[in-house]
Amino acid sequence: MLKSYFKRNEIEAGCDEAGRGCLAGPVFAAAVILPRKFKHPLLNDSKLLTEDQRNLLRPIIEKEAIAWAVAKVNPKEIDKVNILNASFLGMHRAVKKLETTPTLLLIDGNRFNPFPNIPHQCIVKGDSKFRSIAAASILAKTYRDDFMEKLAKKFPDYGWTSSKGYPTKAHREAIRIHGATKHHRMSFRLLPEK
Hints:
Blueprint: E1 12-18, E2 27-33, H1 51-64, E3 67-73, H2 75-81, H3 83-97, E4 104-108, E5 120-123, H4 131-154, H5 160-163, H6 169-178
Parallel strand pairs: 1-4, 4-5
Antiparallel strand pairs: 1-2, 2-3
């Protein structure tokens, strides 16, 4: 059972990211403030849901949320600040875009760069514990998947329609044959060491 809040009298925004372990494409982050009474039988960590379930939940979350926002950090920025800081930066960008200002941020994971004037609580596996973080995980994942599918049309050789930029065998083989694109993260090990 996912919890509806961490602290009773706060306006909580759940924050999560998608695409941290990818070799290509941006990292996406989302922040979601849900009404206390929001419930959906399918709502869970996006990784535990099918693509169809995530796509079904996305418009429901967007419609029912008090506020929600999605932001991205591109590969050049990831290479500059590193993937962990890029994840935090994405969450900061999403929080800044929220139309309602939260009084507490619930962060999926064990670390975060503090956001100015809003306290935060890090929660390991938060996307399978709190509804707002689960909702953020679904938005981040579906927006990123959509972005990678569009990108796949321009770069058909890399199989991003199925891998979404993750380091699959086929994706690595395509990098070996065709080289890296401007959408690859050059600070990542794109090919295994010989």
